[in-house]
Amino acid sequence: MAKKDDPRKIVANNKKARHDYVIEDVFEAGLVLSGTEVKALRMGRASLTDGYANIDRGEAWLENVHIPAYFQGTWNNHAPRRRRKLLLHREEILRLESKSREKGHTLIPLSLYFLDGRAKVEIALARGKKEYDKRQTLREQQDMREAQRAMRQKELR
């Protein structure tokens, strides 16, 4: 999560991503947005739950991310689930394209935030987890919490 000295202003997090996927690599990308989208994001309104990224003709795109319409916008308000271009270096796009074509790999957004006044998205190259992997992860987290509780109880005595 964001620390006190972290300059990022987080707008949205994809909490289910780390539960449903094994994160292999993380990239930070800029976003091409319209004015009303930026205003809606500054109000803290966005949802990354169904979002994904893909590479099309050498360009990276963020799809199915919901940024609701700006309520003070006019007739030129944006479409909430439109396709948005990601700003990445050419080498990063080529690396993501080759890795995402491998079986079982996908590109998912982890968080959406502002850094120095610019909208950024953190995308991850991820591999989907099976149901038993998800249960195993939950079991490990629960065991870790119980161990920490036991250590705290021991320190208090």
Automatic annotation (TrEMBL):
Keywords from the UniProt entry: Cytoplasm, RNA-binding
UniProt keyword GTP-binding present: no
Chief subcellular location: cytoplasm
Claim: Glycoprotein is one of the keywords in the record: no
InterPro entries referenced in this protein's UniProt entry, alphabetically: SmpB (IPR023620), SsrA-bd_prot (IPR000037), SsrA-bd_prot_CS (IPR020081)
Residues making up the signal peptide according to the UniProt record: none
Origin: domain of life: Bacteria
Protein name: SsrA-binding protein
Cited Gene3D superfamilies: 2.40.280.10
